[in-house]
Amino acid sequence: MESSSVPLAEKIRPVSLSQFFGQEHLVGKNGILRKLIEKDQLVSLILWGPPGSGKTTLAKIIAKTTHSHFVNRSAVTTTLEDVRKVVAEAKERLLAYNQKTIFFLDEIHRFNKAQQDAFLPHVEAGTIILIGATTENPSFEVIGPLLSRSRVLVLYPLDKTQVKKIIKRGLVFLKNKIDSKAEEFLTEASGGDARIALNALEVASQLIAPKKKIGLSDIEEAFQKKSLIYDKAGEEHYNTISAFIKSMRASNPDAALYYLARMVEAGEDPLFIARRMVIFASEDIGMAQPTALVVANEVFRACDEIGYPECQINLAHGTVYLAAAKKDRSSYNAYFEALADVQKYGNLPIPMNLRNAPTKLMKELGYGKNYERYPDKNVSLLPDKLKGKKYYLK
To answer: In the prediction, which pLDDT does 17 show?
Structure first.
């Protein structure tokens, strides 16, 4: 009999591809992973996808289908000594029984460079088949040599139809039923994460009286407050702030407010958001509405002095103002064109008439000679090599 402490998601975890829902591009009829499994031509893999998309389940199915020994570890608790022990046992198993070892490392992105380096000789020699799972972009989090020796497979959030199939499977196991509104809410709120859906379903079934159908209020109570996927050090952090900036740049306050709300709800540092708004005010609005910088700075000051939860109102105010403002990148573009010339030509001689002349000798050498306080605007004050060049075109 199953222990009551084992989560529902674990109790009904698929053990074959026929029971697995989602990731058709990988495990469907022509899916690359299905072909690798069926031909028993396994290579080391990096499974990149959001929580609850089936990374661990797929790794276990691969091991079971190919009759490989399966080692399941988390990078959070695994040491280099643990890795060495698994590799040593894998060598013995391969020699004695000709059995492959699949080393599944969850959250591989939490291993540092030195720890990831430890896998290289054993992956290359075929001593172990490494399957690393990560929610973060492996281009940034997994070292190049390990990436080059592995195949990266991308997993996507489950769609509504797939989540509903998983919910149905959970209901069969729980010997329970759910009404349509509750099912719809559960499907939507799970955000494509099978584990979230099953955990909420299990909690809801424990809240109701025996033989009572699960209703909307039961699911809402089970969820309480949905957590957002938002790793402040990871890719979703950068994706969200990028979407926020680009929405303001597109003068779309609705989208900008939505991405602001996602960051605030996930607990993003308000000063980080406000700092980006200050940069945006000069970079994208600039001379079209110079007061934008004043507003952005005041938003930053308010966030610094007030903090959450009240400063979210200041952030919203500033977001709408910046999104609605006219845009002009001329000063930004002009500066970086000038910077490019500085980097290209180095310290070109400053024209003599612009040089400081604090001593008699300097004056005799022509420093400051013919300087005009208010010359004609068409007179170039640039070094001779750049004379007549225009950076700011307004």
So the answer is: 92
